[in-house]
Amino acid sequence: MTSYAAARPTRPARPDARGDAGPLFVLGAPRSGTSLVYRALALHPRAAWVSNYHRRLPALPELGALGHVARLAPERRRAVWFGPGGDDAYRYASRRSLAERFFPQPVEGEPVFVRRGAVPGAAPGDPTVDVAGLVRDLERLRRSAGAAVVVSKRIDHNRRVPLLAEAFPRARFVVVTRDGRAVTRSLTGVDWWPDLELWWDGRARVLDRVAQGADPAELAARHWLHETEALDAGLAGLDPGRVRHVGYEELVRDPVAVLGATARFAGLGEDGAWAEELRRLSYPDRNRSTREVPVGVARILAPSLARHGYR
Fold it and tell me: How many helices (H) and strands (E) are present in the chain, helices listed first?
């Protein structure tokens, strides 16, 4: 199996006089490996990120300084961010102790963007978006963390790429792609899937569509299709030099090399201690049995799989 992500050369971001290369936005459909890339990059000492505290208090970007607290306890950080086995970057709050929930950690942080009107689908020039305020917020976050680059991951970024690209002219985008058959299987296995609102279907919940007779696996396949199509449309007008593509398959096969190249692209640079920390994590390949999908799912996915280089 191959991915279109492997062969696209990209040039590294160049920090400006302040050492700021612009934010790095991690994009990709849900269950594609975006959380793994995000948290792995957030381990870098030159990275700032939206924490669980900043998400609750989006008007206080200075909470980015809590990243220093997390770095003081590397073993605890590894266990909280990636689980006891170091192989679970996407962990549910219901599975965590109270102490784990209070430990500073990278989160998606949608309130940080919604607070400034940057809702999914907002376009450049939308007067309801406080672009200057959003730019100030991320700069305050970066400075409070003493970092070079703000790394932000949010699935809804897929539908606001043009807005982010215009608001942050130095921003870079890393796109994580995974076989849609594996994503479909993964989506139907997570506990939040039945309650998910399908933005492409009038915000109907999955469980309501299933009650009306829809097949949950086919809904998951369509969700991957719509997310990837929205992302492709958003990226279409960007300078290719601002975009790096990472295939999930390449990531789990050679994680330190792939993440190292991504860090250089983002302007984070080399760091030996960070690379060693990456080696302490586990990267299991969860793309098992991706070819064994129902006929209806295969029919939905086929055109987009081919376009993205999957056979």
Answer: 15, 7
Asked if residue 205 lies in contact with residue 58, where contact means CB atoms within 8 angstroms, the answer is: no
Q: Can you name the residues that pair with 29 across neighbouring β-strands?
A: none
Sheet hosting strand 47-48, strand order edge to edge = 47-48, 149-153, 24-27, 172-177, 243-247
DSSP 186-243: HHTTSTTGGG-EEGGGTTEEHHHHHHTT--HHHHHHHHHHHHHHHHHHHHTTS-GGGE
Q: How far apart are CA 287 and CA 289, in angstroms?
A: 7
Taking alpha carbons only, the member of 163, 236, 171 closest to residue 13 is 171
User: 172 vs 10, 213, 230, 301, CA distance in Å?
Assistant: 11, 42, 18, 28
How far apart (Å, rounded) are the C-alpha atoms in residues 217 and 20? Answer: 43
Q: What does pLDDT average to in each consecutive run of 10 residues of the chain (311 residues)?
A: 36 41 94 96 98 97 95 95 88 71 94 97 96 98 96 97 97 96 93 95 97 97 96 95 96 97 96 97 81 86 88 79
Distance separating alpha carbons of residues 190 and 153, to the nearest angstrom: 19
H-assigned helices in 93-179: 98-102, 110-114, 131-145, 161-167
Q: pTM of the predicted model, to two decimals? A: 0.91
Domains and CATH numbers, the chain: 24-179+243-286 (3.40.50.300)
> Where does residue 288 fall: left (phi above 0), alpha (psi -120 to 50 degrees), or beta otherwise?
beta
For residue 51, give the DSSP letter.
Answer: B
What per-residue confidence (pLDDT) applies to 29?
96
pLDDT, residue 3, reads 37
What are the two backbone dihedrals, phi and then psi, of residue 190, each rounded to the nearest 5 degrees?
A: -95, 150
Look up residue 218 and give its amino acid: E
